[in-house]
Amino acid sequence: MKPKVFITRKINQEIVAKMEEFCEVSMWEEEEVPVPRDILMEKIKDVDGLFCLLTETIDEELLETAPHLKVVSNMAVGYNNIDIDAAKKLGITVTNTPGVLTETTADLTFALLMATSRRIVEASSYLKEGKWKTWSPMQLTGQDIHGATLGIIGMGRIGSAVAKRALGFDMNVIYHNRKRVSKLEEELDVKYVEMDHLLKNSDFVCVMVPYTKETDKLISKREFDLMKDTAILINTARGGIVDEQALYAALISNKIWGAGLDVFENEPVSVDHPLLSLDNVVAIPHIGSASIKTRLKMAEVAADNLIKSLKNEEPECVVV
Ligand code: GLV
Ligand code: GLV
């Protein structure tokens, strides 16, 4: 008998077909609507494997109702949507998709940094709304990227890939990380500094840590108070790392200059969220890894991880 698998969102048919060679697959057939919790609760009861997205909360209650479940394969590098301790306790393998999305997410992070500092979105609206009457010396002026100091909090794979891009723009790169990465310091000409030093000295503060209990609201009022009034915050990691109320307060009081946000505490963020009313916020809907090639690769890696786990082979990317 083939192992049973549930896929929580409509994914590419070729990848489903590949899984069907080995598994009995059922799939939530919607692309833009997440699977309702009660249906997921029902489905998980008799499956051996779950292929899920970061939009699904995989908590202890859910895992406990799944007596056959061997593996949860998350189609994302981040896995804060999954209760890892509960999975470990229940002997359920959890896998993710690091590596394949590193460069694509670094590209987007840099695009957001540039869009925010040079006011690209605001300038485009200005033109399209018929406000452009003349060229003017200080019209839509922003912050320079070249020569600026980029502070990267979290020097993992994606953080390093952002640093590499920054060097091409002649930026001065400093970083803070739980562990110093001396090898990268030489390779990428980046400098390790304490957190407060980074906050005080960076023109761009770029958050690149995973979301955990330790990084919850890591950037809050105290941190904004340390930052330059010309500083720009970039977050393409997870919304919960930044205290959104403190960010809003820092932006309206000109305590910092701008923010580029790809992620929010609650997603999808409501259109009447105060942060979205600000001209100095560039906001995009969690699209860090969203290139066609990379999203297909992520689905492929997630499928491989799932199949290998069900075959009792070692999957490439095991979390627990
Ligand atoms: C996206 O946010 C991911 O974690 O892959
Ligand atoms: C984070 O998970 C990274 O790959 O840097």
The CATH architecture of the largest domain: 3-Layer(aba) Sandwich
- What's the alpha carbon Rg, rounded to whole Å? 21 Å
Number of helices: 12
Number of strand elements:
12
Kindly state the percentage of residues in helix: 25-40%
In short:
With 320 residues, the chain is α/β, with parallel strands linked by helices. It folds into 2 domains: 115 residues, Rossmann fold, CATH 3.40.50.720; 182 residues, NAD(P)-binding Rossmann-like Domain (Rossmann fold). The site of one glyoxylic acid has 8 residues, from helix 7.
Molecular structure report:
The chain has 320 residues and is of the alpha/beta class. The chain has 2 domains: 4-99 and 292-310, Rossmann fold (3-Layer(aba) Sandwich); 102-283, Rossmann fold. Helix content is 35%, strand content 14%. The chain has 12 helices and 12 strands. The chain has helices at residues 13-20, 37-44, 60-64, 84-89, 102-117, 120-128, 157-168, 182-188, 195-201, 221-226, 244-252, 292-310; strands at residues 4-7, 24-27, 49-52, 71-74, 93-95, 149-153, 172-176, 191-192, 204-207, 232-235, 258-261, 281-283. The protein has a 7-stranded parallel sheet, sandwiched between helices. Strands 2-1-3-4-5 form a 5-stranded parallel sheet. Helix 1 (13-20) runs parallel beside helix 12 (292-310) and helix 5 packs across helix 7. The longest helix is centred in the C-terminal third of the chain and has 19 residues, at 292-310. Bound molecules: glyoxylic acid (2 copies). It comes from Aquibacillus albus. Keywords: NAD, Oxidoreductase. Belongs to the D-isomer specific 2-hydroxyacid dehydrogenase family. One of its GO terms (molecular function) is glyoxylate reductase (NADH) activity.
